[in-house]
Design a protein that fits this description.
Elements: H1 2-7, H2 346-349, E1 378-381, E2 388-393, E3 399-404, E4 408-413, E5 418-424, E6 428-434, E7 440-446, E8 452-458, E9 463-470, E10 476-480, E11 485-489, E12 493-498, E13 503-509, E14 517-521, E15 526-530, E16 534-539, E17 545-550, E18 556-561, E19 567-572, E20 576-581, E21 587-592, E22 599-602, E23 608-612, E24 617-622, E25 628-633, E26 639-644, E27 650-655, E28 660-664
Antiparallel strand pairs: 1-28, 2-3, 3-4, 4-5, 6-7, 7-8, 8-9, 10-11, 11-12, 12-13, 14-15, 15-16, 16-17, 18-19, 19-20, 20-21, 22-23, 23-24, 24-25, 26-27, 27-28
Length: 669
């Protein structure tokens, strides 16, 4: 009889209260203690039940439509098949509650705590679950269509076959959640945390996952067609047989992911990181992989036909039997890559970068030996948008690096005169240096108003090894031999850095500044630091200043050391070029140029000095006689930095109008 009465919905019902609530006034329920009560089928539509204690109560099939349950305690309560449509459960306690098959259409659970609660088969269409805690909840088959989950916690939750279509889960936490076969088409999950989540066979078509964390997630056979994963982190995730057709993965981190047999057709992966990724048998037809970092990736048997690989880095990648017909390989770095059996043409390789370790397909004859000779005396390399502040050339003459004042760093292949790598320091950049073994590079700079930055860059793998921030601005940097050391100049001191751990191991205090330049000398036993009026000779091993040479009345502006480490060539603001003996106070005038000397360099054989002055030209002088041996017109822009190539036949020059120029000084012998 109770059950019949409690379910009756006649207009006079409010005057006839079910006997299960006979001892409670309906208008006095707020804050009441109904823990453990048997209230199955109770009619509480629109009731004010704020702060009511329903702990372990049985509310199965109860009508709570529109009821107000703010801060109510429903811990371990049973609400199977209850009607909670439009109910207000803000900050309610639903820990361990049973809501299987319940109707929560449009309910407000903001701030609710539903840890370990059971919502299997529940209807949460349009419900507000932000920022509720559903950690470890059972929500298999639940309907969360159009639900609002902004910042909600669902870590460890079971959501197999759940429907989250068009749900807004921006910033929500699904780490370790089970979303097998769940439907998330058109859902919003930017910045969401899905680390380690199980998304096998999940439907994520056109889902917004921009900036989301999917590290080590299982996306086996998931449908991500047209999904937006711009800037997402998908490291070590499983994407085997996944469908990523027309998806956006630009700037995403896919390093170490497993994507065997994945369909990545017409996908956009600009600037993505695929380092060490497993892409065997993957389909990448017509995909855009421009500037992708894919060092050590496995693309055996992959289909890359008509893909755009311009500027991509595939160092040591396995491209065995890959299909590259029609693919764009302009500036693609294939050094050390395995192309055995790959389908491509010699014409495609003409614009690619490779070395003696690259395994080419049988029958393809091409060469990568030696720098090219520009057809014009001055060749211009374009890529910077701001004045170039520093350049360096590798010891073998095959690579050059340049950095501009905005912090943009470009790596150039001097064999083909093309840009091959790019990264941004993020601060005002002052100096760049390539290691003697051409494996790493250092870039230093400064932050405004104070502070400095040092970055170590892997040239072979095309990625940053580490970044260090200093209290003082960093002015310039030079590698110190093969011992993994570098000299870094600050305002009034020079530091010797151990590149293994990225920490300074010794500091030389100069006491005056600002320092202009620092160079190793005499087989790297000495460090030569230049300030405006003095030359400082420092002992690298002991950290002591051996001597201090006065340059007055000159005001120094540039420094270069001869290859034997015995002499220093100085440029001054007055345009004078001076040769100084480092073991004495002897110095002599060598040459002069119009206006201040902005930069200079000594040739590899130690016989010539190349000087850049205020005008847009370079002058070459013989060190022994001081005679001018040539003048080279840059046409526009003043030279701000320069380096000789390894054979001394050319110079790489950075100019004030954001160009890098290759100047042919003489023909090779």
């Amino acid at each position: 009889m109770q059950r019949i009465i409690s379910k009756f919905r006649g207009p006079w019902y409010r005057l006839w209260r079910p006997s299960v609530l006979a001892d409670v006034e309906l208008d006095a329920l707020e804050g009441a203690d109904l823990s453990g009560r048997q209230l199955a089928g109770a009619y509480l539509r629109g009731a004010v039940l704020n702060r009511v204690n329903f702990r372990a109560a049985d509310l199965s099939q109860a009508d709570l439509w529109g009821a107000k349950l703010t801060s109510a305690n429903l811990e371990e309560a049973t609400l199977r098949e209850a009607d909670l449509s439009g109910a207000i459960l803000v900050t309610a306690n639903l820990v361990g509650a049973h809501l299987e098959g319940s109707n929560l259409w449009g309910a407000n659970l903001a701030g609710a705590k539903a840890v370990r609660a059971i919502f299997s088969g529940a209807d949460l269409n349009g419900a507000r679950l932000a920022p509720a805690d559903f950690s470890d909840a059972q929500m298999n088959g639940a309907n969360l269509l159009n639900a609002y989950l902004w910042g909600a916690r669902l870590s460890g939750a079971a959501l197999q076959t759940a429907n989250l279509q068009q749900a807004d889960a921006t910033g929500a936490v699904f780490s370790g959640a089970n979303l097998t076969s769940a439907t998330l088409n058109n859902a919003k999950l930017p910045e969401a945390d899905l680390q380690g989540a199980n998304l096998r066979d999940a439907h994520l078509r056109r889902t917004n996952l921009q900036g989301a964390l999917l590290d080590e997630a299982d996306l086996h056979r998931a449908n991500l067609r047209e999904a937006n994963l711009f800037g997402a982190s998908v490291r070590k995730a499983v994407l085997e047989q996944a469908n990523l057709e027309m998806a956006t993965l630009s700037s995403a981190d896919l390093s170490g992911c497993h994507a065997r047999e994945a369909r990545i057709t017409r996908c956009e992966l600009r600037d993505a990181d695929l380092t060490g990724a497993e892409l065997q048998n993957a389909r990448l037809e017509d995909a855009i992989l421009e500037s992708v970092q894919a060092a050590d990736a496995n693309l055996e048997n992959a289909d890359l036909s008509r893909a755009d690989l311009s500027g991509a880095v595939f160092c040591r990648a396995n491209l065995k039997n890959a299909n590259l017909w029609g693919a764009r390989l302009e500036n693609t770095d294939l050094r050390g890559a395995n192309l055995f059996g790959a389908s491509l043409t010699e014409k495609q390789l003409e614009t690619a970068i490779f070395d003696e370790e690259t395994v080419l397909p049988s029958g393809l004859e091409t060469t990568s030996a030696g720098p090219v000779v520009p057809s014009d005396p001055v060749c211009t390399l374009r890529g910077h948008q701001h004045p170039v502040s520093s350049v360096d050339v590798s010891a073998d003459g095959l690579l050059a690096m340049s950095v501009d004042i905005s912090g943009e760093v470009l790596v150039w292949d001097l064999r083909r005169l093309r840009k091959v790598q790019r990264f941004v320091l993020g601060s005002l950049a002052n100096g760049v240096a390539i290691s003697p073994r051409r494996d790493v590079a250092l870039v230093v700079g400064e932050h405004k108003p104070r502070g400095g930055e040092l970055r170590l860059w892997d040239l072979r793998g095309a990625h940053e090894i580490y970044r260090r921030v200093t209290e003082q601005p960093l002015r310039c940097v030079q590698f110190c031999g093969h011992a993994g050391l570098a000299l870094v100049a600050e305002d009034v001191s020079v530091s010797l850095w151990d590149l293994g751990d990225g920490e300074p191991i010794r500091e030389f205090s100069i006491g005056e500044g600002p320092l202009i330049q620092v160079c190793p000398a005499d087989q790297d036993r000495l460090a030569i630091a230049l300030s405006a009026h003095r030359l400082h000779v420092l002992d690298i091993d002991t950290g002591k200043e051996l001597r201090r040479l006065s340059l007055q009345p000159l005001v120094a502006s540039a420094l270069a050391i001869t290859p034997d480490g015995k002499q220093a060539v100085l440029g001054s603001l007055s345009g004078q070029v001076v040769l100084c003996e480092l073991d004495s106070d002897t110095r002599r005038d060598l040459a002069s140029v119009p206006g201040p000397v902005r930069c200079l360099a000594v040739s590899p054989d130690g016989q010539q000095v190349l000087v850049g002055g205020q005008a847009h030209e370079l002058k070459l002088f013989d060190i022994a006689s001081g005679q001018e041996q040539g003048s080279f017109d840059l046409v526009t822009g003043t030279p701000d930095c320069l380096r000789f190539t390894a054979d001394g036949t050319a110079a790489v020059v950075g100019t004030s109008n954001h160009f890098v120029r290759i100047v042919q000084l003489r023909t090779a012998d």
